[in-house]
Amino acid sequence: MHYSLLKSLFPLTTTSKILTRSVAVNAAGVTNTQNLKPWKKIPGPSSLPIIGQMHHFMPWGELNNAFSVEFGKHLYQKYGPIVRFNGFFGSTPFLVLFDPDCVSVVLQSENVMPIRPGFQTLTYYRRKKNKNNQPMGLLADVGEAWKHFRTVVNPVLLEPEVVRLYSEKLDGVALDMIERLRRLRNKNGVIQSPFDVEMNLWSMESVCLVALGRRINCFDPNLPANSTERRLLNLVHDIYKTADELDFRPSLWRYFPTRTFKRAMKLYEEQENTARYFIDRTIDELKAKGGTKIESEKGVLEKLLDINKEMAVLMASDMITAGVDTTSIAMTATLYLLAINQHKQDILREEVMSPEGERTYLKACIKEALRMMPVSAGNARETTKDYCLRGYHVPKGIQVTFMHQVMSQMEEHYHRAHEFIPERWIVGKDDPMYYGNANPFTYNPFGFGVRSCIGRHIAAVELETFLARIIENFKIEWSGAPGVVVKSSTLNYIKGPFNFVFKDV
Ligand code: HEM
């Protein structure tokens, strides 16, 4: 759900902490808009009759590379901190923000039942299936239905005591992956398998442990390529690919069921059925073990099953959709930045190898990686009221994108912004590097407020455990010049080349 620039660039309808800040809600909407500069006066690309601003995004247009961070920078440089788009082919107009003060106004005001434009085909699928007005899950529901679902699942997924139950098991996943990486290394330390796929396998295994209450052993070398376990991983990718096409680009599926749309419906159904299949297996195993656990020993799935099975299936599907690619991208980015910053890696290794401590530097490395190479370009909200932003009238029903990736790389917010400096998350207030000198709304890797990432604590344990194990086992180097290709669509996919060299410590 992930909530990229793309989504807000091509919205089709109006419906729709590791570092999460807690900020008081303020109702910053305006009632009298007469004295404001009109919406149409907000700077933005020029418009032509019928096609509007579409031509700018064509291969010959100034915004052709629409999904990259360069695109964001270009918009900012050319039009400034607030940029208007009219929408295309009747789609909702939208606004792109590079001003953290404006971001804070919208995010704080839209913090009761926030609408995050997102997987509209998933909402369509679940609504169609849902004959009795049952909940549709966090990724698909809005309004009171979303609020109710979230209120019920928050104490399960965000409760530190529950998350802590997974530390040991996630460490088991990490150690298995370390063994797998060892086996995949050639004599020069190069991993003989696509690195992004390997990281996906690790994150899939980790999130399934929580969502399905079991190890699915998806990186077992003996697992057949057509196994249900492997299929689950492919499903996540296929879902993102089709959602990218249908939800986040102009598409005709709203007018008639296109081929891709029909495929998306099948994918959602298959993913739900697969989650149900694994959950049923877990239920059988729990029954076979007999006895009921005391409350404090129950994991996420067991707690959700106590509430109701359908909720457990929906939550598991959403956790898998939202928790696989995101976490693997974050891990790959962190490893890449540590590989090209050997000195920082040495400091981290010293911390990891020393007897139990707070692991402050490790956490800082992850935070810094999420600043420099965030999982998505930004986040978005639909306005439910009128706003005054930089003196302009921003009406209700507009999709607003917050360009966190660009903002968190601006020198005006972060000193030496283009350098990987984990220390900025640790040093005190008097140090010019101190992260708190930046407006907190420049950096929101897990989103904001009541609708922020519900898996953030789980993601933190996954990332911290695996990173510590990698650093303890391997010295990661990078052969050749630094640089990776990042293909930004729904998420910022790191496409390699993966010039990692894994040496024994
Ligand atoms: C580094 C890894 C991750 C990142 C960067 C990330 C980021 C995000 C972001 C930015 C949002 C939108 C928040 C908002 O609109 O304010 C979100 C929502 C969500 N995330 Fe994550 N996420 C990660 C891992 C996970 C994991 C591991 C899970 C599941 C265990 C998960 C489950 C979800 C769900 C279900 C939502 C929707 C919440 C709602 O709408 O109420 N995420 N995530």
From TrEMBL:
UniProt-listed Gene3D superfamilies: Cytochrome P450
Transmembrane segments: none
Similarity comment: Belongs to the cytochrome P450 family.
UniProt KW keywords: Heme, Iron, Metal-binding, Monooxygenase, Oxidoreductase
Pfam name, any one: p450
Cofactor(s) in the UniProt record: heme
Lineage, uppermost ranks: Eukaryota, Metazoa, Ecdysozoa, Arthropoda, Hexapoda
UniProt protein name: Cytochrome P450
Statement: the UniProt record of this protein carries the keyword Transmembrane helix: no
Organism in which the protein naturally occurs: Loxostege sticticalis (Beet webworm moth)
